[in-house]
Design a protein that fits this description.
Helices cover 3% and strands 44% of the residues. By secondary structure, it is an all-beta fold.
Length: 193
């Protein structure tokens, strides 16, 4: 199912921590919620940055319902950030003997927007994971591998992040990557057996 960032069912609420203010915390003013308004909204017709009625926009509302300012961001027809259109996980396990098991798994997801503040996207990703488990009484040994194909995955991204003095702090994308190929072994002992 396609979920648009302009979907009115989406709500974001930011609220002050009143108790924290008593302890010297410096928090912003009244609680605000972000709500997508449409021209047919009962609260009044939304207008985009060009002032045209019927244009979708994001409007920040204070707790009392009054509009603080129109951000004018058009998100009509765009997918939600951090929400791939599809994801899958397929796993197969085999019992090789009384004490030995093996499994293999593939996972995947579609590309997705990293934020509603910019147009950077995480690319589509597919990963392969596997493990072999030996168990005998209270002891077990699990040899495992994640992202065995060493797929480069992007988990977070910032579109306008200037933090490199070598480039005179020019605004450029910044990405946080997922785990590379990782292999390991886990030895376990269950007490009381």
């Amino acid at each position: 199912a396609h979920t648009s960032a302009g979907d009115e069912s989406v709500r974001v609420l930011r609220a002050d921590n009143a108790a924290g203010r008593d302890r010297g915390a410096n928090l912003p003013g009244p609680a605000e919620s972000v709500r997508v308004l449409r021209a047919d909204d009962a609260a009044g017709g939304a207008r985009g940055t060009d002032g045209a009625a019927g244009a979708e926009s994001v409007r920040v509302l204070r707790a009392d319902g009054a509009a603080r300012r129109d951000l004018g961001t058009r998100l009509s027809g765009r997918d939600q950030p951090q929400a791939p259109a599809w994801q899958y996980r397929v796993n197969a396990s085999w019992k090789l003997s009384t004490n030995l098991m093996a499994s293999i798994e593939t996972t995947g997801r579609d590309a997705f927007y990293l934020s509603d503040r910019h147009d950077l996207q995480s690319p589509k990703a597919e990963m392969l994971n596997a493990n072999i488990l030996w168990a005998n009484g209270a002891w077990s040994l699990n040899v495992w591998g994640r992202n065995l194909s060493d797929e480069l995955t992007v988990t977070r991204g910032f579109g306008t992040f200037g933090n490199d003095p070598r480039k005179e702090y020019a605004l450029e994308p910044y990405y946080q990557f997922g785990e590379p190929r990782t292999v390991g072994a886990t030895v376990s002992y269950r007490f009381g057996e």
